[in-house]
Design brief:
Blueprint lengths: L2 H26 L6 H10 L5 H14 L1 H11 L6 H25 L14 H30 L4 H15 L1 H4 L11 H21 L4 H13 L8 H20 L6 H7 L3
Helix pairs in contact: 1-2, 1-3, 1-6, 3-4, 3-6, 5-10, 5-11, 6-7, 6-10, 7-9, 9-11
Keywords: Hydrolase, Membrane, Transmembrane, Transmembrane helix
InterPro entries: MmRce1-like, Rce1/LyrA-like_dom
Organism: Tenggerimyces flavus
């Protein structure tokens, strides 16, 4: 693994994203005003494409043609077993419903996913998430960074490194009034996103490093998100169930190296 490539990618992903997200956060509190605030606010909603652009730039400028081809190959690896798409699509929904059911049984309040209230509109929202958060982020995180990390680190270690960076990348959203993460505790996500990153890796390796599967998973998670904000008890429930799922993923074979599972995954 060329460490320089990862440093360049992570630096570009942060710089390209935060150049808009930080002014947007400041504008949401009235600290920045005028044309800059208006532009950052307008662009900020659609700025999740920067990890994809960072991956393309890094692959082209640092890795060369061979790395661009490898990256594009993972992006086009959609012909994998339908079971992996089913897990990516339905797994987050099942998890969110489990959280909602347990919360109701324990008297912790309403944690049923808001997607249940959207009806048919949820399909349109899912399509938007596929083209924005899913396509824009996963072509960078799982399409570029994770394979590079797996060249040197065990899958668990690679997942945690990427998960911590993923959490840091979201940081401006925690201070953006009205954003999806506004009011959500930073420490919760500092644990939740690395844990979620492990689940991504589990599915990514079993689907033969398919980025389309990761894109579907990302969109589905964002559609069925469980308690981005809530009471301490609610967040503890979500995190506890997430960590239990991570333990199952590790126990069922989070392979030490990507090459091992790429050879043995069923398609």
């Amino acid at each position: 693994m060329n460490v320089r490539r990862l440093v360049v990618f992570f630096s570009l992903a942060l710089a390209l994203t935060w150049v808009v997200w930080v002014p947007r956060a400041l504008a949401s509190h009235g600290i920045v005003r005028g044309a800059v605030a208006d532009l950052a606010t307008a662009l900020g909603l659609y700025w999740s494409w920067m990890p994809a652009i960072a991956a393309l730039l890094t692959a082209a400028l640092v890795g060369g043609r061979a790395e661009v081809r490898a990256w594009l190959g993972r992006l086009g690896r959609w012909r994998v077993g339908p079971q992996w798409y089913a897990i990516a699509l339905l797994g987050p929904a099942a998890f969110a419903l489990l959280v909602g059911g347990i919360a109701a049984a324990l008297g912790l309040g309403d944690l049923w996913p808001r997607a249940l209230d959207s009806g048919v509109a949820a399909i349109g929202f899912f399509a938007v998430l596929l083209l924005t958060d899913g396509l824009g982020e996963e072509t960078g995180w799982r399409g570029y960074a994770l394979p590079a990390l797996l060249e040197r680190h065990w899958a668990l270690v690679a997942s945690l490194i990427l998960g911590v960076f993923w959490a840091v990348w979201h940081l401006p959203l925690w201070i953006t009034a009205g954003s999806a993460l506004d009011g959500s505790p930073w420490l919760f996500h500092l644990v939740d996103l690395p844990a979620t990153s492990i689940l991504y890796t589990w599915l990514f390796l079993r689907s033969r490093e398919s980025v389309p599967v990761a894109i579907v998973l990302h969109a589905s998670i964002n559609l069925w998100v469980a308690a981005p904000t809530g009471t301490a008890a609610q967040l503890a429930l979500v995190l506890g169930l997430k960590l239990a799922l991570v333990a199952v993923a590790i126990a069922t074979g989070l392979a030490p190296r990507s090459s091992h599972l790429t050879r043995t995954a069923s398609g």
